[in-house]
Amino acid sequence: MYNTLKMMYTNTYSCVNINNKVTDWFKTENGCRQGDVLSPTAFSIIINDLLKELNTSGLGVKLDANLIISVLAFADDIVLIAESAENLQKLIDIVHKWSAKWRFIVNPEKSQIVHFRNAPKAQTGHVFKLHTDGPVLEKVNSYKYLGVYFDEYLTFKKATDILATAGGRALGAMINKYKALNDLGYDTYTKLYNSLVSPIIDYGSSVWGFKSYDNLDKIQNRATRFFIGVHRFAPILGHVGDMGWGSNRSRWKLNILRLWNRLVGMDNNRLLKNVFLWDRGQHSTTNKSNFNAQVKQILIDCNMKTLYTNLHPVDIDRLKVIFREKDMLSWENSVKDKCKLDFLTQIKPTLSIEPFVKLNIGRYERSLLAQLRYGILQIQLETGRYNNEKRENRLCKICDRGVVEDQYHFVFHCPAYNDKRNVFTALMQTRIPEWGTMNDTQKFEILFKNHSRALGKFVRDLFLYRKNLIYK
Ligand SMILES: [Zn+2]
After folding, report:
1. How much is the mean pLDDT over the chain?
2. Rg (CA), the chain
3. What is the mean pLDDT of residues 55-61?
4. What b/e sequence results for 105-137 when a residue is b if at least 16 CB atoms lie within 10 Å of its CB, and e otherwise?
5. For position 14, what pLDDT does the model report?
6. How far apart are the CA of 342 and the centre of ligand 1, in A?
7. Least reliable range by pLDDT among 3-7, 231-235, 378-382, 444-448
8. Angle at 191 between CA 329 and CA 377, to 5 degrees
9. Which of 218, 240, 242, 243 is nearest to 165 (CA)?
10. pLDDT of 161-217, one tens digit each?
11. 375: CA distance to ligand 1 center in Å?
């Protein structure tokens, strides 16, 4: 084994392949072989001595008497942590000595210092150096570790801003592809979103997903808004409610609980498990708001506190159902306060995938139906609002009968559309035996529920006809 390794690393030469042209061969005298399956193991063996030295230095973050953490390492990405600037400098000195001994070079450009603290405490004035005569290490306010930005106050603002930018780009690309494919319907759209966009905006959410983030909610809202086909100022609760997708926050809570499941099942001699148990102890003695506090609160909200107390894993599928119900309840409560959505609340009692959304009707019809539901269809009810007219003064100018032009008047009563409406009514009477005895709200309800294709076509006819009348 030793001889094999020795041979592999004796007289090694490399060259670089650029656009299928290779450069001259050059001798490689240090480092692991590029692309070799053995390299990560070889590197681990080498770096292990350093990690041991750092961990036995006693300079790191003291969790308890037997648990001091000085270093986190993932391949060649090494993070030193300490409770004071002086101790951190001592850890850096250890790394420097070790690297000099083994002829490694630590890149000062890629090494930075973050001072984690509570706001608004000022950043440390300590000057960190790689070695006494070496370059000063830059102090920054965040650092990316394993793809997640940790900022100095642990707000995760930067982390989620960056995810929002990436998620927005992914959504843009997805929408472009979707447009080119000519509207594939709700299920495909949802699947595309769940596989192309939500994995990006959820990245690391088991760590930061303990609160809501506007920047990420905006991405999901843009996705539902695009599919429904309404403008930027359309009431969010409208399209969110009709698409019936779960909230970001519910997905993140599930991710937090998935991490919980991994942690409670983890072997007790793993470092991560020990940190987890320390975190738990911290919460129980000081009531600190930490990971365990988050899990506990989530489980209390679900009447499952005993799982927290007994360190039991949770049933993720069951939690999915519970979070779904919670999303529905919170939607119902918020929609009640929105006077703009009074029409929607009359015909739609809960957050659920609406049939008109699932039905493969044209984009224009889908958009018109949504606008009608959310009170933003361009009839007097909405356009009068732009001129600050009182609701009772937004009268129908098409028939001029002194009646407010709202959804009911426009679809069921305005005499200007009698010819078209008679055809529609006759069709509905054949389909719905009770039609004659129903009130307007009941009619809208059943139309949206079972006849949204016919309703969409009818509303489109009325709306285009109305446009013509106005331009004349
Ligand atoms: Zn009218």
Report:
1. 92
2. 31
3. 90
4. ebeeeebebbbeeeeeeeeeeeebebeeeeeeb
5. 77
6. 21
7. 3-7
8. 60
9. 218
10. 999 999 999 999 999 998 888 778 999 999 999 999 999 999 999 999 999 999 999
11. 17
> How far, in Å, CA of 223 to CA of 60, rounded?
45
What pLDDT does 275 receive? 94
How far apart (Å, rounded) are the C-alpha atoms in residues 67 and 63?
5
Whole-angstrom Cα distance, residue 124 to residue 85? 8
The distance of Cα 275 from the centroid of its chain, to the nearest Å, equals 26
Share of the chain above pLDDT 90, in %: 74
Distance (angstroms) between ligand 1 centre and the Cα of 420 equals: 14
Q: 449 C-alpha vs ligand 1 centroid, how far in Å?
A: 25
Separation of CA 413 and ligand 1 centre (Å): 7
Question: Lowest mean pLDDT: which of 42-46, 66-70, 123-127?
Answer: 42-46
Q: Which residue has the tokens 């509303």?
A: 459
The answer to whether the CB of 326 falls within 8 A of the CB of 421 is no
Instruction: Tokens for 353, please give them.
Output: 């995938």
Ligand 1 centroid distance, CA of 67 (Å): 77
